[in-house]
Amino acid sequence: MVPSWPHRPLSRRRALTAATGLAAGAALPALPLAGAAPATAASGTYTNPVIWQDFADIDVIRVGDTYYASASTMHYSPGAPVLRSYDLVNWEIAGHSVPVLDFGAKYDLNGGRGYVRGIWASSLAYRPSNRTFYWLGQIDFAKTYVYTATAAEGPWSRLTTIGTAYYDAGLLVDTDDTLYVAYGNTTINVAQLSPDGRTQVRTQQVFTTPSSVGTLEGSRFYKINGQYYIFLTRPANGQYILKSSGGPFGPYTMRQVLLDLRGPIPGGGVPHQGGLVQTRGGAWYYLAFVDAYPGGRMPALAPVTWTADGWPVVQLVNGAWGTTYPSPAVPAPPRQVTPMTGVDTFDGTTLAPRWEWNHNPDNTKWSTGNGLTLRTATVTNDLYWARNTLTHRIQGPTSTATVQLDHSAMRDGDRAGLALLRDSSAWIGLKRDGGVTRLVMVGGLTMDTNWNTTGTGTELASAPVSGGRIWLRAGADIRPGAPRTGTFSYSTDGTTFTRLGPDFTLGNDWRFFMGYRFALFNHATQALGGAVRVTRFELSTP
Q1: How does pLDDT run across 216-241, given as a tens digit for each residue?
Q2: For 62, which of 172, 177, 193, 419 is 20 to 30 Å away at the CA?
Q3: In this structure, are residues 156 and 135 in contact, taking their beta carbons and an 8 Å threshold?
Q4: Residues paired with 453 in a beta bridge
């Protein structure tokens, strides 16, 4: 492994204890018969990662000719984004399965903070009998929540709460419509749910990971050719699979799928913790993620074949997960997906699904239409405690976020701007004190591994401001093998930009799990009442 990525077969449960997904869906059709014709001829190639944004612990399913995936979002709200694709390569964000993190006051930044808690590896499934999508995930090792929707974009609503915490769960809709859940860390269990999916009927341990393997988690549950499979990850460098011919409760035998496999991102980790999915034409694919900090965990796609005795084999290129492969053979898409980059002028009545708040927002303190208005929602000198910080994933390998900001309604003590946000952060923006507004670059915002603030920031550069409008820009190089540089600049006309402050080195410690994000913020240090308006946001790549 490269020095920038520590070798760490360590579960998130163990990491958090020390410090303080993917294709589970309906039973899958049989393996393709020899000579089966594809849906359409493949054309060209695709390049990994297929999404160079932070979408981890992916669960992927196909419904008709459309593919859907879900991902972890930890403390960001809304949670559990639902991605949509027609070819497994080009993806858009359709919506979120968890509309609000209503799991306790800490997710509101009210007396506590939910950093690195919340939405972990969860499961997305589709139930043909009632034409309904299901999302299932455990929160804080305490309870499991199930949400449903009849369309991927929502609206999603909570179906039930289950007292058993299904850690890293995979949901299976069997061919007889029975709902099963595979879950656990090292000790793997299978639960059966009631026909309505609201309660647990039974649960049983089905497998204990050999000590020679270590930790297995991240269950994905399938039924293929009448056999049951549980797909498991060895964090963060391996993938294993269990197979049972005796039913969902086993007995299971284990086989290694991959271990210490070179990935497609230079300086990044081993592709793992993903899911299997089959095209209508019969081809199989594995959609995994690659640890690639500081940007996060990036989805990568590889074709899969099967042995004669029913075990999956990832197709490699020169002994590694390929950087390029032939494009999947799928029907022509009905439309082009919505890009994850580009311009947002916040003209609608709701935010586009590419946006997620840092913890739940105070919905009385923001609005859209003719720009995004952020009214101060918290009095604090700590950005990590400030509500209504709105985040956007960074596009790799390098990208730039530019915002046009109207700051004429700021009040004394207010702080507003554009941040590179993670457990080590920096920002460019505005400070208003004593009736004077100044442009500043601030670094040194830090948290420890218990996610307590250890630094609220130090002003590293400043410039005078005139008028009520300014353009702010943050650039980020999130290649894990690169210098990991963040830069800040500003403009008074939207055309000519001037650097402000030194380079910011993006941290690449994996323990925060989520990658860096661009973040729009406005908080008070004296009293509420001020506001800023973001009239334009643009995420661009070179």
Answers
A1: 999 999 999 999 999 999 999 999 99
A2: 193
A3: yes
A4: 447
For the stretch 302-328, pLDDT in tens is 999 999 999 999 999 999 999 999 999
Q: What is the 3-state secondary structure (H, E, C) of 445-488?
A: EEECCCCCEEEEEEEEEEEECCCCEEEEEEEEECCCCCCCEEEE
- Tokens (6 digits) for 222: 């399938």
Buried-exposed string 20-57: b where 16+ CB fall within 10 A, e elsewhere: ebbbbbbbbeebbeeeeebbeebeeebebbbbbbbbbb
Q: In what order do the strands lie in the sheet with 517-524?
A: 76-77, 355-358, 390-393, 517-524, 414-421, 424-433, 436-447, 453-464
Strand (E) positions, 38-114? Answer: 45-47, 56-63, 66-72, 76-77, 79-85, 91-98
The angle subtended at Cα 271 by Cα 267 and Cα 275, nearest 5°, is 155
Please give the torsion angle defined by the CA atoms of residues 488, 494, 498 and 502, in that order, rounded to the nearest 10 degrees: 0
* CA dist., res. 229 & res. 507, Å (int): 37
How far apart (Å, rounded) are the C-alpha atoms in residues 344 and 351?
9
Q: Are 193 and 203 in contact (CB under 8 A)?
A: no
- pTM score of the predicted model: 0.94
Contact in structure between 425 and 515 (CB atoms under 8 Å): no
- Give exposure, 518-527, as e/b (b: 16+ Cβ within 10 Å): bbbbbbbbee
Distances in whole angstroms, Cα of residue 311 to Cα of each of 29, 308, 511: 15, 8, 33
Cα 260 from Cα 269, distance rounded (Å): 9
Exposure string of 103-132, with b = 16+ CB inside 10 Å and e = fewer, is: bbebbbbeeebbbbbbbbbbbbbbbeeeeb
Phi/psi at 127 (nearest 5 deg)?
Answer: -110, 105
Which residues make beta-bridge pairs with 324?
A: 47
Nearest in space to 515 (alpha carbons), one of 236, 294, 269: 294
> What's the whole-number mean pLDDT along residues 279-294?
98
Q: Between the CA of residue 491 and those of 428, 438, 464, what are the distances in Å?
A: 12, 14, 12
Amino acid at the residue 449: T
**b or e along 449-475 (b: 16 or more beta carbons within 10 Å of the residue's beta carbon)?**
bebebeeebeebeeeebeeebbbbbbb
| Residue 97 and residue 84 in contact, taking contact as beta carbons nearer than 8 Å | no
